[in-house]
Each structure stands twice: as C-alpha cells, then as structure tokens.
Amino acid sequence: MTAGFWLILLAMALYGALHSLLASRRVKRYAEARFGERIRRYYRLIFSVLGGVTLLPPLVLTALLPDRVIYTIPFPWFILTGLLQLAGLIGLVYGVSQTGAMRFIGLDTALDATALQRPPHFVTNGLYRWVRHPLYTCSLLFLWLMPVMSWNLLALNLGVTLYFIIGSRFEEDKLLDEFGDAYAEYRRRTPAFLPRLFPPPE
Prior knowledge:
Elements: H1 3-23, H2 25-35, H3 39-64, E1 69-72, H4 77-99, H5 101-105, H6 107-111, H7 134-144, E2 148-150, H8 151-179, H9 181-189
Antiparallel strand pairs: 1-2
Helix pairs in contact: 1-3, 1-8, 3-8, 4-7, 7-8, 8-9
C-alpha cells in the first residue's frame, strides 16, 4: 500500500461531502434565499460544473502520486473485461439519455425557464427496470474492470464506490418525497445496483 492511497481516499471523502452538501435541499433553499428565485434555473448546471471541477483533484492525485501495481488482468481475460467496460460506457450513455442529457446536466432549465414548470419524469423502463441506479452500476463496472489495478486506482475506486452507496441513500430520500408511494413500490421490487437474473414483471 502506498502513502498516496490514504491521500486519495481523503480527497474523495472531501469531494463526496461537498457534492452531497451542494445537492441537499437545505443548500438549495439557502441559495434561493440569498440569490433569489432565478438561481433555480441555473442551480443544476452550477452543481454539474462544480461536480466536474472538484473531481479533478482526486483524479490528478491518482495519476501523479507514486504508485505500485497490484495486479494485471492477463490475456485473453482482459479482452472480456474490456468488452464489459465498453458495455458499461454504452449503458452509461443510454442511462443518461433515458432521463434526458440536458436535464442531467442542468441545461434544460438554464436555457428555458418554462422547464422548471414541467412535472418530473419518473423513469422505470430500460436500464431502470433492472436497477434503481444504472448510472452508478455502469460507472462501477467500468472502474473495477480496469486491466491494471494499482494502489492509487484502488483508493479512487473505493472512494467512488462508497460515495455512490452513501449518495444513493440521500438521492432516494428526495425521490421518495417527489414521487411518494410510486417510488416506494419501485424501490421495493427493484434492486439498487446489482440486477437480478430475470427482471420483475411490469
């Protein structure tokens, strides 16, 4: 284990804490009180930009700190894991498209104020039929199947995984408030991250 392992974990913990804080309803209400109702149009976009920028320090630490390889996936197995990683990337793009890429980033409301008045769309088909958090599942599939695993990458992967697990709890609390019994039933019959062998009936 390298010294950078713990530094990267700490960086990911700080990222997760800041990201969760900015996603909280309390901070959103404070922003509206401080900057007025207009901030609602741009809050998601600002959140997305800050999320990308604040993820850079853990990524830079992972790339630049001294590191040591733990294992390398040998041939021909790395071909299989590479195909699974590709499937994860395709699933990630498809999952974002299901909820709307513009909405995911926050450009929908930033470009069109009337988007704030549209009712939220509760998606339960496609990838969401198999798991409640397909974007997290696809991201983790890509991360954990890297052909070369090092201590720095392990620290990053662990940090991301813990963040997804903890963050999904906060996310689901908001979805319960938003969709009520419909989401409670969906959560009861749909696993969070690991799909069942056979999807439940519609």
